[in-house]
Amino acid sequence: xxxxxxxxxxxxxxxxxxxxxxxxxxxxxxxxxxxxxxxxxxxxxxxxxxxxxxxxxxxxxxxxxxxxxxxxxxxxxxxxxxxxxxxxxxxxxxxxxxxxxxxxxxxxxxxxx
Amino acid sequence: xxxxxxxxxxxxxxxxxxxxxxxxxxxxxxxxxxxxxxxxxxxxxxxxxxxxxxxxxxxxxxxxxxxxxxxxxxxxxxxxxxxxxxxxxxxxxxxxxxxxxxxxxxxxxxxxxxx
Lengths: 113, 115
What we know:
The complex is a heterodimer.
Chain A: E1 3-5, E2 10-14, E3 19-21, E4 24-26, E5 32-38, E6 44-50, E7 56-58, E8 64-68, E9 73-78, E10 87-94, E11 102-103, E12 107-112
Parallel strand pairs in A: 2-12
Antiparallel strand pairs in A: 1-4, 3-9, 5-6, 5-10, 7-8, 8-9, 10-11, 10-12
Chain B: E1 5-7, E2 10-13, E3 19-24, E4 31-37, E5 43-50, E6 53-57, E7 65-68, E8 75-79, E9 88-95, E10 105-106, E11 110-114
Parallel strand pairs in B: 2-11
Antiparallel strand pairs in B: 1-3, 3-8, 4-5, 4-9, 5-6, 7-8, 9-10, 9-11
């Protein structure tokens, strides 16, 4: 069964520092991949998705992710963290033959001034 | 911007009681989903729904669960006889089209507590 693994349940960075949130997927066929963000008391909001077009995907709020087939990774990055980026981030995969999303365990990002 | 809404935001119920969680998907969307997140655990897929039928369901979605689109706007999840382990955040989502690459838009969730 396909799955995603998010390394690090908590990540802390200083404001202005690089944000790197890790996601690895398990799939014999390149799947569709997503990053969602959840702010406190809100639903899941799509940051970006990979659907077999460009391997470097740009999303909202300055985030981007690079699909690396050789590493089965889809890490999320942002060059400069902002206080408003503090939230929980979920990586998800959608296998080819289904509409469901399979989520990782999430990474809580804290941003310190 | 259109959004998925869910009611209630919080629900407390006694074990064995029936609960109905309500969702209003984005108006031109045709595909609907329920997910849940037990505290501290992953967001898990429950069921997908299209054209008044279940498209796919997970092992979690057993006979105590049902979904319905009672009218042109609402999409409901019913739990017939709640158990303690049903305590979770339940998310509704909708998408315009089917297919693994389609974006699913999520509601804010209903936090269900079973006592």
